[in-house]
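Action item from last meeting closed. Structure (289 res):
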């Protein structure tokens, strides 16, 4: 039995840092969306546990215990002993750049948990699976869900949105990795206002663009100080035709443009590839609510 799952890229359309706990974890308030652009994973029974990687960014990932996909498998075995085959072979086709602010490692871990839950002789309850996801990292529970959501706390409080307008993204990465801990260290103000309240039904592009005008990514200034190319990238994306919003995602360095149609997004991606020939550029629809 060979099972497959996608690990969609996570994009923070807005990311407000609203506080810091005594243990050092930052409190966030974010609107997270997911894209059709994704890593691809498969899992099947095998004589022993193993991970094989391929794809355009497969060589950029560690293959040992620092890889979240392997840690997800280890933690699943420990939490739900005897429910998996003696060995599980995981293949990871890596299409998302690494350390790019797209939640790639967390998305991979979330996909592995979904695969293992489907493979297990007794499927874990959703609450148990989300608790396990939280042990792997703050972004993993939302990536386990992989649908538009409002996120707060350190990432563990997730409110799925009932609706979301059909939108498209262009993602642009200058091929410079950014350390998330370093971005947070450089953050000057750690207690900022939260996002404005979301409408009960966020189902029209115009409504989304109007709401986004009063939001920000608090990690963009410190990330830009570390990677100055972010500022120019955002400015060039913003100047493309049909762009509703240009901003950095997560802790960077990937930047995005938000568009109302596939045609506008693909044209923007074409134009941006011409201007940023050494960058990674991709156009993708957002996943629905």
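Sequence:
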């Amino acid at each position: 039995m060979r099972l497959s799952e996608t690990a969609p890229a996570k994009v923070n359309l807005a990311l407000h840092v609203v506080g810091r706990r005594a243990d050092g974890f930052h409190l966030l308030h974010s609107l997270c969306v997911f894209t059709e652009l994704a890593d691809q994973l498969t899992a099947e029974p095998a004589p022993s546990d193993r991970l094989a990687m391929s794809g355009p960014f497969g060589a950029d990932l560690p293959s040992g215990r620092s890889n979240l996909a392997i840690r997800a498998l280890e933690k699943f075995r420990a939490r739900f002993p005897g429910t998996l085959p003696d060995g599980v072979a995981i293949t990871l086709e890596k299409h998302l750049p690494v350390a790019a602010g797209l939640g790639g490692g967390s998305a991979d871990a979330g996909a592995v948990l979904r695969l293992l839950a489907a493979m297990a002789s007794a499927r874990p309850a959703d609450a148990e699976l989300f608790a396990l996801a939280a042990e792997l990292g703050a972004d993993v529970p939302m990536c386990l869900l992989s649908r538009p959501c409002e996120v707060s706390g350190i990432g563990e409080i997730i409110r799925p949105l009932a609706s979301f307008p059909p939108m498209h993204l262009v993602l642009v990465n200058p091929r410079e990795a950014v350390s998330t801990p370093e971005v947070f260290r450089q953050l000057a103000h750690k207690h900022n206002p939260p996002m404005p309240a979301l409408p009960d039904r966020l189902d029209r592009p115009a409504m989304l663009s109007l709401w986004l005008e009063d939001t920000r990514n608090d990690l963009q200034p410190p990330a830009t100080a570390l990677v100055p190319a972010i500022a120019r990238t955002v400015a060039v994306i913003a100047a493309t035709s049909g762009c509703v919003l240009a901003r950095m995602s997560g802790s960077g360095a990937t930047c995005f443009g938000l568009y109302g149609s596939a045609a506008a997004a693909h044209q923007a991606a074409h134009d941006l590839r011409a201007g940023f020939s050494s960058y990674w550029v991709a156009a993708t629809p957002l996943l629905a609510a």
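Note appended to the action item: The longest strand covers residues 26-46.
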